[in-house]
Design a protein that fits this description.
311 residues, alpha/beta, seven-stranded mixed beta sheet, six-stranded antiparallel beta sheet, 8 helices, 26% helix, 27% strand
C-alpha cells in the first residue's frame, strides 16, 4: 500500500521498519521537530527520523500538522493509508479523512482500556495480568475509534515499563503488518468502542510519579517501582540525597516502625516498612553514584535501623 507514516519515539520505530520490510511504499515519514538535548543543547533528531533516514525515506517535521502548508504536501503525497504510532500531535479531521483507508493507529493497550498517553506504564503500575496492542481506525476522539484487530500477551511477574515497552513495540509492528492486507481487501469488520473506558485515562507519566509514598501498601509500591522503569525511575530521599530504587521485593511482614523507616540493612538488602507490609530494596542507586546491588552499597554506607526514607 501507499503509506504515510506518523510517529516519533522508539516505540514507533519497529512499525516503520516492518512497513519497509513488508514492501509497502512509504512515501513520507512525519515526525516531531528536532529538539535540543544534553548539556551542549545540540539538536537531536527523533528515533523515527533516524530510522527513516536509514531507510532513505523522505522526512517531514511540521510544527503543527493542522497547518495548511503541510496538509497541501500531504495531499500531494496521496497516501492510501496513514499509519500513526505515538506521534505526539492531535490529527485534525481534514487529515483523518484524506486517505481512502483513513488513519490507522497502533495503540499500546487492549482498547477500550487505557486510552491516553502512557498505557504501558499504567498497565504495570495497576497490576494488570495481560496487556496488548490494538489497531484502531482513528476518529476525532482520544483513542475512541473503531477497533480493527488486537493482540494480547501476559505480563511477567517482574515486568517493567521498559520490558513491556519493547514487547508491545514488536507486537504492534507485527499486528499492523498482519492487519493492513485485510484492510485493503475489505476483510475486517470494525468494532465500535463503548463510550466509556473501563479504566481511568492513562495520563502521561511525570517525574513526580516516581516519588515513593511509603504510606502506600508494599504490593502497590513494588508495582510502581517496576512501572516507572526506565523513566523517571522510583526514588526517595536518604540523609538528604536522592536514592533511586531499581528493584525491590514484597515482604508480607509488618513492624512497629513507621512507613518509610528502615527495618533492617544487611546482605539481603534494605528492608523498609510501608503502609502495609514491607519492601526489601535489592538494587539501588545513590545520588551521584552508579547503580548497584544493595549489599554492595551497604559495604560502603552504614545505615542504622530506624533511619527514615523520604523528605
Amino acid at each position: 500500500m501507499r503509506v504515510v507514516f506518523m510517529g516519533t519515539p522508539d516505540f514507533a520505530v519497529g512499525t516503520l521498519d516492518k512497513l519497509v520490510e513488508e514492501g509497502h511504499q512509504v512515501v513520507g515519514v512525519v515526525t516531531q521537530p528536532d529538539k535540543p538535548r544534553g548539556r551542549g543543547k545540540a539538536m537531536q533528531p527523533t528515533p523515527v527520523k533516524e530510522a527513516a533516514l536509514r531507510h532513505g525515506l523522505e522526512v517531514y517535521q511540521p510544527e503543527r500538522v493542522r497547518e495548511e502548508e503541510f496538509q497541501t504536501v500531504l495531499r500531494e503525497l496521496a497516501p492510501e493509508v496513514i499509519v500513526v504510532v505515538a506521534f505526539g500531535q492531535i490529527i485534525p479531521e481534514s487529515i483523518l479523512q484524506l486517505p481512502p483507508y483513513g488513519c490507522l493507529n497502533v495503540h499500546a493497550s487492549l482498547l477500550p482500556k487505557y486510552r491516553g498517553a502512557a498505557p504501558i506504564q499504567w498497565a504495570v503500575i495497576d497490576g494488570e495480568k495481560t496487556a496488548g496492542v490494538t489497531i484502531m481506525q482513528m476518529d476525532a476522539g482520544l483513542d475512541t475509534g473503531d477497533m480493527l484487530s488486537f493482540a494480547e500477551i501476559p505480563l511477567a511477574a517482574d515486568e517493567t515499563g521498559g520490558s513491556l515497552f519493547d514487547k508491545l513495540s514488536d507486537l504492534g509492528a507485527q499486528l499492523l503488518a498482519d492487519t493492513l492486507p485485510k484492510v485493503e481487501a475489505g476483510g475486517i469488520q470494525p468494532v465500535p468502542q463503548p463510550a466509556d473506558s473501563p479504566t481511568d485515562y492513562a495520563r502521561m507519566i511525570t517525574k513526580e510519579d516516581g516519588r515513593i509514598d511509603w504510606s502506600r501498601p508494599a504490593e502497590e509500591l513494588e508495582r510502581r517501582i517496576r512501572g516507572v522503569i526506565p523513566w523517571p525511575g522510583a526514588f526517595s530521599r536518604l540523609n538528604g540525597k536522592t536514592l533511586k530504587v531499581w528493584k525491590a521485593e514484597i515482604l508480607n511482614e509488618d513492624s512497629s516502625m513507621e512507613p518509610g523507616q528502615i527495618v533492617a540493612a544487611g546482605r539481603d538488602g534494605l528492608t523498609v516498612q510501608t503502609g502495609s507490609g514491607q519492601i526489601r530494596i535489592t538494587d539501588l542507586q545513590m545520588e551521584g553514584k552508579k547503580r548497584m546491588p544493595a549489599d554492595a552499597f551497604l559495604r560502603g554506607y552504614q545505615i542504622e535501623p530506624g533511619t527514615r526514607l523520604g523528605e
